[in-house]
Structure formats: structure tokens, C-alpha cells
Specification:
FAD/NAD(P)-binding domain; 8-stranded mixed beta sheet; D-Amino Acid Oxidase, Chain A, domain 2; 8 helices; alpha/beta; 2 domains; globular; 386 residues
Length: 386
């Protein structure tokens, strides 16, 4: 990376090697990796760190299906298997618990076609889900580890046990990530990206920040910034998808696997809490309000896992996740703006792979060549624009 430019009070209030726009899980990991590499880093967040989609309730770390193996699935596998050691390091640094557990996942088989496919996936997992240290399974069993988890009538053909899946407490994780960078990174909250020209970013509060590189990691709010910098409608780069989830109070074994069935997750967290969700709404009127769509998910979850049938709801949550036009995460330098890097987009898988993608972003920002799947690269998304 080139050295930061020289500043004066007339040209900028702040200066840094790297400016990160957005304080969700991706932005926090980018800032952490940047600081660990010795880059002078500033992170700005429109609201407060962790207040967006990353600060939801579920915390599901779910692998792709093990069949039809490709670079994207390999990247995600390596991310999911490397995360536990990184989480432990952050917990040791900060003294905060992230609520991580490799709990596994149960998926009821309720159609003959699903059962046939699961057999093929079992063989694929044996081949692809392995490391020198350990192996992970995608097996078919007749009974769950706990009667009623899930309900027998939901699994007439047995169920798949995926031992790679894990869960993490989103808010505890974000709090620990934030604490891990507070002594290394300048964090400025209540400041949004307003404009960028000649290496100077102007914020909504009137600050001017001159940065060697700027990373746009503001979730779905990155898309209108791309429209501003590159031209075109925000929707031609991506759009928000609404998600709704709920948190229930239920004293269950913390080691229970999460259950996934027909789009619904049931995830046991520490401290007598169970997360249920989530919706993926392409159209919505009230992005941050819960409604009948969440009630439908709760009804499904209670039938699926009778152990939570009478559990009271202690929180309802709604938020917007970023879905890039190419559906995958979107990472790369902007055409005609080589000092600006976009890092957003993977609305369903980002939480479990943010740390590995962040390394790629810093590689790119420091002149390296990141080992990214082609489908993650910004150029691939530009081909999908309409």
C-alpha cells in the first residue's frame, strides 16, 4: 500500500491507510485484519457498530451442500473449519464469550426424492468434508438425539445429520470483535458515507477522511453508494432482503443440534434462549418491523420442535440483509476508482465466512492477489447487471 497522503486542517480532519465503511461482521473483520497487518485504520458506522443485519438473532453457520464441489464451496468449508480457532483467540484477547458451538444440524427427510439425494450427498461429504485433523459427516439416521427434536411426524424418512454446521451468538460475537479492535482502530459511530473524491471521503456529519484505500462494507446500503460512484440504479448492483426472527426463552440442552426444515431454523443458544427464523422477503413495506410472516415461522417452528411449543417470545427482530445482483458476496476494486473496494452482498452466507473474505479484502487493499472464487469477484457481478 502507498503511504497515506499528507494532510492539513484545510483538506481533511482525519487520515488513515484504510477506511472501512460499515460496522457489521464483515466490516469488523476487515478492520481487525487491517490492524493486525499494521495498517492505520478508521471504521465509520452510520448508526452503532453491530446495529444492522449482523446484529440479528439466529447466528447459524451453515455449510453449502457437499455435492457438486466447486471453488465457492471449498472457500466456505475452509472458512467454517478455521473459524473456531479465531473465535477462541478473540475470546482470550477480550475476555468475552462469543457463544460459539459446533452443534451440528438436523434436517428431516419428508420426501422420497430428498432421501435419495441425501444418500448421494453422504458420499460427497466423505470426499469433500475432510481435513488432515478431522472429518465432518452428512449422515442419514432414523432417530434424532432427543425425542421430539425434531417431531417424529416431520421426519417420516429419517433425517440428515450434518456435523459441520455450528452456531454463534451474533451480538456477543460482534461485541467481542469490536473490543478486539478498539485499541487498534479508530471507530466513529453515527457517521455515514456521503461522498468520495480524490481519496477523500465526506461523511454525513461533515467529517472529511483522507484514506489510502476505502472499503465499502455497509451491507445493503453499499448498493446506492455504488450507483453514486459508478452510475446506474442501486438495484442494478443489489438489493435488500428482509429477514425476521424471534428469540424464545426455553431451558434446553446447549449441545442440541440446530434444526432446519422447509426454510425454518430452530437454534438453541446458551442461557436458556432459542432463536427461530427466518424469513427472506423480497418485497416489504416495513423493513424493520415484524409482522404475520414471523408468526407463521414461529408456528412452523413450534410444530417442528414441540419442546418450544409453550416457550414465550422474549424478542422479535427484523432487518435488511444485502443480496448482490450475482447472489454471492461481492468483493473487488471499483472500475475507475481503484482506491475504493466493495465488500458486501452475501446475504445468507456472509456471517460464517466474513473472516476469510476480510483477509482477501486486505490482500487486495495491500496490492496482493486474493484467492477468491470467481463468483465472488465484483467483475462477475457486473456481468449479471440488467
Amino acid at each position: 500500500m502507498t503511504a497515506p497522503r499528507t494532510y492539513s486542517p484545510r483538506t481533511a480532519d482525519l487520515s488513515c491507510d484504510l477506511l472501512v465503511v460499515g460496522g457489521g461482521v464483515f466490516g469488523l473483520w476487515i478492520a481487525r485484519h487491517a490492524a493486525l497487518r499494521g495498517l492505520d485504520t478508521i471504521l465509520i458506522e452510520k448508526d452503532r457498530v453491530g446495529s444492522g443485519a449482523s446484529g440479528g438473532l439466529l447466528g447459524a453457520l451453515i455449510p453449502h451442500l457437499p455435492e457438486r464441489w466447486d471453488a465457492k464451496k471449498k472457500f466456505q468449508f475452509e472458512a467454517l473449519t478455521s473459524l473456531p480457532d479465531l473465535v477462541r483467540a478473540i475470546e482470550e484477547e477480550t475476555g468475552l464469550d462469543c457463544g460459539y458451538r459446533r452443534c451440528g444440524r438436523l434436517m428431516p427427510l419428508w420426501k422420497e426424492s430428498f432421501a435419495d439425494i441425501a444418500v448421494k450427498q453422504t458420499a460427497a461429504a466423505r470426499q469433500n468434508w475432510s481435513t488432515p485433523e478431522t472429518g465432518f459427516a452428512w449422515d442419514i439416521v432414523e432417530r434424532p438425539p432427543l425425542d421430539g427434536w425434531p417431531a417424529a411426524d416431520a421426519m417420516p424418512l429419517g433425517l440428515v445429520v450434518d456435523t459441520l454446521a455450528a452456531r454463534i451468538d451474533p451480538r456477543s460475537y460482534l461485541a467481542a470483535l469490536r473490543r478486539s479492535i478498539e485499541s487498534r482502530v479508530r471507530i466513529i459511530e453515527s457517521e455515514a458515507f456521503e461522498a468520495c473524491a480524490d481519496g477523500v471521503v465526506e461523511t454525513s456529519g461533515g467529517k472529511r477522511i483522507m484514506a489510502g484505500r476505502t472499503v465499502l462494507s455497509a451491507g445493503y446500503e453499499t448498493f446506492p453508494i455504488l450507483g453514486q460512484l459508478l452510475g446506474g440504479e442501486a438495484a442494478s448492483y443489489g438489493r435488500p432482503v428482509k429477514g425476521q426472527a424471534a428469540l424464545l426463552a426455553a431451558e434446553l440442552d446447549d449441545d442440541l443440534p440446530l434444526v432446519f426444515h422447509d426454510g425454518t431454523y430452530v437454534i438453541v443458544h446458551d442461557g436458556g434462549r432459542v432463536a427461530v427464523g427466518s424469513t427472506s422477503e423480497q418485497r416489504f413495506d416495513a423493513p424493520f418491523s415484524t409482522d404475520a410472516a414471523l408468526d407463521t415461522v414461529l408456528d412452523k417452528a413450534r410444530r417442528l420442535c414441540p419442546a418450544i411449543a409453550g416457550a414465550p417470545v422474549i424478542e422479535r427482530w427484523a432487518g435488511l440483509r444485502p443480496r448482490a445482483v450475482g447472489r454471492n458476496p461481492m468483493i473487488g476494486a471499483l472500475p475507475d476508482h481503484p482506491d475504493v473496494i466493495v465488500a458486501t452482498g452475501g446475504f445468507k452466507i456472509t456471517f460464517g465466512i466474513a473472516h476469510k473474505m476480510a483477509e482477501c479484502v486486505i490482500d487486495l487493499a495491500t496490492g496482493g492477489t486474493p484467492d477468491l472464487p470467481e463468483s465472488f469477484r465484483f467483475a462477475a457481478h457486473l456481468k449479471d447487471r440488467k
